[in-house]
Amino acid sequence: MYIGKSYKLSEFIIWTRKSIYVLLILGIVPTVLYEVFDLKWLGISWTVVALLGTATAFIVGFKNTQTYNRTVEAQQIWTFILNTSRSWGIMSRDFINDPEKSKQLIYRHFAWLAALRYEMRSYRIWEASQKKHNAEYQQFYYVIPENEISLEDELSKFLPPEELEYILKTKNKATQLMALQSKTLKKMFDDEEIVLLQFVDFQRTIKDFYAQQGRSEQLKDSPYPRQYAIINTLLVHLFCFLLPFGLLKEFDKMNETITGIAQGNMVWLVIPFSVIISWMYTSLGQVGESTENPFEGNANDVPISQISKIIEIDLREMLGETDLPVLAEAQHNIVL
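User: That's the sequence. What structure does it adopt?
Assistant: C-alpha cells below.
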C-alpha cells in the first residue's frame, strides 16, 4: 500500500514508459505518412474516434470502479482479522489459567496468519505482478516480505517441530492450523480447563476466522471477469491506434487559421496530443489492472504483512513479552 501523499510524476512515467514508447510510434507513423508522403486518405472522421473514445472511457471507468471495490473488500477482511485477533489474544490470556497453553494458542494463531498471507502472495496466472513493468518497479522500489523468507522458516518460529512437520504436509495449511486450535480447545473443555461459555466464545471466533479466510481465498482465486478484462484491453488498444488517424484532418484544418512559422506545420502536433490522450487511457487501464488482485504484492495492495506484524506485536505484549518484532519501515512510501 502506498502511504505517501502522492506518487511522483517521474515514478509514474517510469512505470508506464513502455506504453509511451508504443504510443509515440503509433503517433509518428501515420503523421509522417500523411504529411511527408501525402497520403491524405489516412485521415478518418473524428466523429468515429470520438464515439469509440466515449465507449472506451465508460468501460475503463467501470473496470476501475470494480477493481477498487475488490481492494476495499480485501482491506475490510484484514481489518476484521486484525480486530478479531486482538479478541482472540485477550480470550487466550484471560480464559485460560495456564500461561503455556495461552501462549500455544496465540503462537499458533501467528502461524495461521503466516500460512494465510503466504497463500495470498502465491502466484495466479491471471495476476499482473510478474508483468515486466510491475516486476521492474518492485525490483527498484520495494520488497515483498514473503519472498525474503520461506514459509517453513516462518512457521518454525511459532510451531513445535511435530506440528510443523504435520502442517507442512497439508494442502491448506491455514485451515488445518485453525482445526488444531479447535482440537486443543475441545480437549481443554473436556479436561474442564475452560467452561462451556468460554468454549463457545472460542469456537465462535474460530468460525469468524474461517469466514474471513474464505473471503480472502475467494478474492484470491476469483479474478476480475476475463470477458470484461479483455474487452477493456481491446477497446483501449483500438482507440489508441485510431486516435492519430482521427486527429490528422482536425489539425490540418487549423493551418487555415494559423499564420507565421506554425502555418502548414500544425499536423505535427498530432504526435504529442495523441500520445497524451492515449497515455491517459492506457495509464487508467494499467492502474486498474494493478488493483485487480489486492494480495499479489503490487505497490497498491492491502498490507497484509504489516497487519500480521501489528497483530503479532499486540498479542505478544498481551503475554507480557518485551522482545517484540519491529514493524517494517516503508520503502519509497510503500508498505506491504
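The mean pLDDT is 94.
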